[in-house]
Each structure stands twice: as structure tokens, then as C-alpha cells.
Specification:
The complex is a heterodimer of chains A (347) and B (267).
Chain A (H helix, E strand, L loop, with lengths): L1 H4 L3 H4 L6 H15 L6 H13 L4 H15 L1 H30 L3 E2 L6 E2 L5 H8 L1 H35 L2 H16 L2 H12 L4 H6 L11 H26 L2 H9 L4 H29 L4 H5 L6 H9 L5 H22 L9
Antiparallel strand pairs in A: 1-2
Helix pairs in contact in A: 3-4, 4-5, 6-17, 8-12, 8-14, 9-12, 10-12, 12-14, 13-14, 14-17, 16-17
Chain B lengths: L4 H28 L17 H7 L2 H34 L5 H13 L2 H16 L5 H27 L2 H8 L4 H30 L2 H6 L7 H8 L6 H14 L1 H11 L8
The chains are: A mainly alpha (347), B mainly alpha (267).
């Protein structure tokens, strides 16, 4: 609350008024009493200039810039948007566009140079060769499994954090969820490699129950990726549930709904956008991953591996670009599909 | 909703099991950093601090950490500025193409890292024609960090509404004074949360980094990746990983203390 009211040490320093500020205030008081104020900012500036006299040029300059901005919201909007738009709209989108244009080119197999003549060959290869179709379906499947598993694991955790834990416990739990994000991705992936190895932690812990490690492969990949993206699912759901007023749930139970029904008809629909927001992370992060699958996935390949190998070893940027359109198209369809749920506001 | 006792217990159990799953692999890393056996035989026979003392003398790791910190700080700074500007534009104005802009900000994190990575790589090398290096790395990192700052700031702006600023302007403060004395103090904790997450994202990024950093720049994740599968270096990698896990408590603790928020930031 202190912060909201602006009652912090930074403000106190400014409370002793300087002579200029007092003059300014006097000018303003007179303005308040003045009979016919036209536009506020203009009058204020004039008055101060006329009666203060002590105002420095710089200060007046700042005032008039501010007044100008006040009168011209379009200029203000332009000023705010210019830099981010240049960075993302021109540089980043431009880079993406350049990449996808090169998807329609080919590479000379002898020289390794890019041949800039338009062709759909890359996309034809992509669609016609079984191996790429298999890899695409496998990748979507892994991404979906990771997303569903994370949502199922994250929801009860987030629910407990947001609705049952005391405020103090809430803080500690948020820290507990955030901390693994700081632990290195590679170290975590490697930890799973060690745990899944023969005679590793999982064998050691679960062999007494007759369960062994699944070994390196797709199951291991799903486990590892699901593990790594779990915080990306918990945090948006937690934020969404925290915003959900308790009174709604109370109203529902006052009206006779049992907890299960309240959950189904009140909590779940309202928390759904947050789940979708989390799924954007888990889905996209999985679609682009090529490292975890190399560490724990055995010989399996995902889309990311194909793109990576074509950039590196094969030196075939056009084909890599064509392959990269697959996850992009999947993500754009996904974003378009979830747009209406309001998930993008929950990111 | 009045939850029955069994439901609460089940939810608590789910939370505890979930946290255990999150922390056990991290614990394995920490324990293995003391494991005598360089191939991490489990359970460890004996414990040793040999790897820790070797890691402290490892200049490669130290240089890599320093590079990562520098890149992370610069990318965070750029992201703080651009993310805040974009958040103000979208929170305070309605204009044609507003939805497109909000999608644009999200795009670098909604698209898989490898796409951003090769797109920027291609743009730097062939379209603009600059050498990959530290600058390109910072540009690439800032691009996907903008969204975290943006999300934190816009959430805060939406919650606050414009009343405080209007009051300040009505009392005669100009745009800049209002920003300095009213808006900024109210945004500070959101900026902190967003900045920290941006730094964390940048610090741990490997996929975009691989494509935009150039051969001679070694960030910590790149160093880890290069050393992970070397038998002599793997234990040292484990030590660095453990140290990061332990040290990560500091920034998160500070963020919690300074922001006094329960939400701890949005991704």
C-alpha cells in the first residue's frame, strides 16, 4: 500500500519545495481561481512563465514538451512505439521473413552456395519423404504429451499455492518454483541422463518396486522436457488462480454446488486461459528443442535436430528454413486457435 | 469454496510430490558434485571436494560466467527499456493494429528458439553482413527478453489503471514529473521482477546463443555444453551447476524482499 500511495523515501526528498516550485504553486493557485481557464496546460505554462520569472529555460522547455505531448496523443504513442517496433517489427520480423524467403531457394551441392532461384523443392521433399513426416508427427506428439503432463502436474500445485497456502507459505512456494529456472538447462538435462542411466538413481530407487529406468529414448525425452518446462506451466496457472476471486467459489458453494462441480463450472473455465498460456511455453519450447533429445533421447530425432543438422553439418540453409516453417506454422495455428480464450493476456 | 479435509490433504500431497520431483534432480547434481567417481556411479562410494577446488581454478568456467553476466545485463537493460515502452503503448492507447503489436512482442518467445536463432543468424551474416560476436548475442538475447518485461509491466499498468497519473496531472505535474514521482515508483517492483526473469532467461539460453554468438564467444551454457561429455570435465560442470543452483537463491530472495509481491513475476 505504501508503494501505491507513493509514500517511499524517494518521494520525501522532494517534499521540501524550492523557491521555483513555490512560485509555480502560487501561479497554479491563481490559475485555479481564474475565471476562464481555456486549456489547462497552456494556461499553466503561460502563467508560470509570466509570474514566476525565476523558471529556468530548461524547465520551461521540459514543460512545453510535456504540454505538447499532452495535446498530441499520436506523437506520444509514436514515441512509445517507435523503438520497440523498429526492433521487433522491422529487425526481427525482417529476419524471419528473410529466412522464409530462403526456404524457396536451394543449395548448390558442389559449391555449397545458395542458389537464388525460386523453387518449391524443399517443401516437396518435406512433404514427400516419410522420414520428415514421421519426425514432424513425433515432435508434435512429444510436445502434446509434455504439455498435457505438465498441465496435470502443475494445476494441483498451483491451486494449492494460490488458494490454500497461507500468504507466507505462498511466498516461499513461489520462490521454490522460480529457483529451478535459474539452474542451468544443460545441467538439469544432464542430471536426468545420469538418473536414467543403467544403475542410476531411478533404477536404484524404483527397482525394489519392480520398475526400472525407461532408458534413453522418447519416454526419457518427454520426462526430461516435462521436468524442465514445469515451472513455465505452474507460474501462469498460479497467477491466473490468484486473480480468481474467492468470492466466486464461495458463491458457487452457497448456491449448492459441491466442490467438484464448483471446480468444473467455475474454477476450470476461469483458469483455462492461464493453462493455455502455460501451454504456449511448453509447446513452443518442446517444438524447438534439439539438445535435450540429444542428451537423453538416444537416436531419436525431433524437428529441431533436423533444422540444426541442416544448418551445421549439411550446410543447407534453405532446407533448414523450410523445415523451420513447420514449427512456426504449428505455433501460429496454435496462437490463432487460443487467441479467443484470452490466453495471450495471461502469459 | 470450502474444501473437504481429504481434498486438501490430496492437494498438499500433490504439491509435495511435485516439489520433490522438481528438487530431486537438482539434489542429484549437488550430491554428484562431491562424488568421487567421475562417471557418477550411484549411490556415491565416497565424497570428495576435489572437483570443487578444481572448478574454482578453472579459468574457462570463470570467463564464461563473466561473459554470460555481461550479456545478460545488457540484454536485460535493452529489454527493460523496449518492454516498458511497448507496455505503455499497449496499455494506455487504443490504435489500429494493437493486437498485431501485442502478438509481435510475444512472438520471439512463442516461436521455438531454433527459429529465432537461425533467422537472426541468417540476418546478421547475409542480410546485414556483420560478424557474429558479443553484440549480435546481446541483440538476440534482448529480442526474446522484451516479452518478459513487457508482460510484467503491462500486467501492473492494467491493474493500476490511470487514476493516480490523472490525479498527479490534475495537481499540475507534467508528464515527466508524473512518471518520475508517480508511475515509476508504482512500476518498480514489476520492472524488478521482469528484469530478473529476463536476466535468468538470457543467462541460461543456449539455442539462440549457439546461432548468434560467434565462435570465440563462450557463454556459460556454451561452455557447459562443450564440456559436458568430456570425462575429465563433467565433474567440474556438475560443480558449476551446483554452484548456480545454490547461488540462484540470492537474486530470487532479493526480488521477493524488494518487491514484496506474492506473484513473483510473470513469464
Amino acid at each position: 500500500m505504501h508503494r501505491l500511495l507513493g509514500l517511499d523515501p524517494g518521494l520525501d526528498r522532494d517534499q521540501g519545495l524550492t523557491r521555483e516550485e513555490e512560485a509555480e504553486l502560487r501561479g497554479r493557485q491563481r490559475w485555479l481561481a481564474a475565471p476562464e481557464p481555456s486549456t489547462m496546460t497552456a494556461t499553466t505554462t503561460e502563467r508560470e512563465g509570466a509570474d514566476g520569472g525565476v523558471l529556468t529555460a530548461a524547465r520551461r522547455g521540459k514543460r512545453s514538451v510535456s504540454a505538447f505531448l499532452d495535446r498530441n496523443p499520436r506523437v506520444r504513442l509514436g514515441g512509445l512505439l517507435a523503438a520497440p517496433f523498429f526492433w521487433l517489427g522491422i529487425a526481427y520480423l525482417g529476419a524471419l521473413a528473410a529466412l522464409f524467403i530462403s526456404a524457396f531457394w536451394t543449395t548448390d551441392t558442389f559449391t555449397g552456395d545458395i542458389v537464388r532461384s525460386w523453387t518449391l523443392d524443399n517443401f516437396r521433399t518435406l512433404l514427400n519423404e516419410d522420414v520428415y513426416r514421421t519426425i514432424t508427427i513425433r515432435t508434435i506428439w512429444v510436445a502434446a504429451l509434455v504439455t498435457v503432463a505438465d498441465a496435470i502436474i502443475a494445476f494441483p500445485m498451483a491451486f494449492y499455492m494460490a488458494k490454500i497456502a497461507s500468504p507466507r507459505a505462498q511466498k516461499i512456494l513461489v520462490v521454490a518454483i522460480l529457483m529451478p529456472l535459474w539452474a542451468s538447462y544443460l545441467v538439469k538435462a544432464y542430471a536426468w541422463r545420469i538418473m536414467l542411466s543403467e544403475g542410476g538413481v531411478i533404477d536404484w530407487a524404483f527397482n525394489p518396486f519392480g520398475i526400472g529406468s525407461p532408458g534413453y529414448g522418447l519416454t526419457a525425452t518427454v520426462l526430461t522436457l516435462g521436468y524442465m518446462w514445469l515451472p513455465f506451466m505452474i507460474l501462469p496457472i498460479y497467477a491466473g488462480l490468484e486473480r480468481l476471486p474467492n468470492s466466486l467459489m464461495e458463491a458457487s458453494s452457497d448456491l449448492g454446488a459441491r466442490p467438484a462441480r464448483t471446480f468444473r463450472t467455475v474454477v476450470l473455465p476461469m483458469a483455462f486461459p492461464a493453462v493455455v498460456a502455460g501451454s504456449i511455453f511448453t509447446f513452443s519450447l518442446t517444438l524447438g528443442d534439439y539438445i535435450a533429445v540429444r542428451i537423453v533421447g538416444g537416436t531419436n530425432q525431433l524437428l529441431g535436430n533436423v533444422v540444426y543438422d541442416n544448418i551445421g553439418a549439411a550446410n543447407n540453409l534453405p532446407f533448414a528454413a523450410a523445415m523451420a516453417t513447420v514449427p512456426v506454422v504449428i505455433m501460429l495455428i496454435y496462437l490463432w486457435a487460443v487467441r479467443r480464450t484470452g490466453a495471450l493476456e495471461n502469459l | 469454496m470450502t474444501l473437504s479435509r481429504p481434498t486438501r490433504v490430496v492437494l498438499l500431497l500433490a504439491l509435495i510430490v511435485g516439489l520433490a520431483v522438481v528438487y530431486i534432480p537438482l539434489l542429484v547434481v549437488v550430491v554428484n558434485s562431491f562424488n568421487v567417481d567421475a562417471t557418477f556411479a550411484w549411490p556415491p562410494d565416497h565424497l570428495t571436494t576435489e572437483w570443487w577446488s578444481k572448478a574454482i581454478d578453472n579459468t574457462g568456467a570463470r570467463d564464461a560466467i563473466w561473459t554470460s553476466v555481461k550479456a545478460g545485463l545488457l540484454a536485460t537493460l535493452v529489454a527493460l527499456i523496449l518492454g516498458t515502452l511497448a507496455a505503455f503503448a499497449l496499455a494506455r492507447f487504443r490504435f489500429f493494429g494493437r493486437d498485431a503489436v501485442s502478438l509481435l512482442v510475444i512472438l520471439p518467445i512463442a516461436l521455438p528458439g531454433i527459429v529465432t536463432g537461425i533467422a537472426l543468424n541468417n540476418a546478421f551474416r547475409t542480410v546485414i553482413g556483420i560478424e557474429l560476436g558479443f553484440v549480435t548475442l546481446v541483440i538476440a538475447h534482448a529480442t526474446f527478453c522484451i516479452v518478459v518485461v513487457f508482460n510484467n509491466v503491462i500486467a501492473r499498468l492494467r491493474r493500476l489503471g490511470g487514476n493516480f497519473e490523472e490525479a498527479s496531472m490534475d495537481l499540475g505535474a507534467d508528464t515527466f514529473t508524473t512518471f518520475r514521482l508517480v508511475t515509476f515508483p508504482m512500476l518498480r517492483s514489476a520492472l524488478l521482477a521482469g528484469g530478473l526473469l529476463a536476466f535468468a532467461l538470457s543467462f541460461d539460453e543456449i539455442i539462440v546463443t549457439t546461432f548468434t554468438a560467434g565462435a570465440e564467444i563462450q557463454t556459460l551454457p556454451i561452455w557447459i555444453f562443450n564440456n559436458l561429455f568430456r570425462p575429465n570435465q563433467a565433474p567440474i560442470v556438475n560443480v558449476v551447476g551446483s554452484a548456480l543452483i545454490v547461488l540462484s537463491v540470492i537474486p530470487i530472495y532479493l526480488a521477493q524482499r524488494l518487491s514484496g509481491e506474492t506473484s513473483g513475476g510473470r513469464l
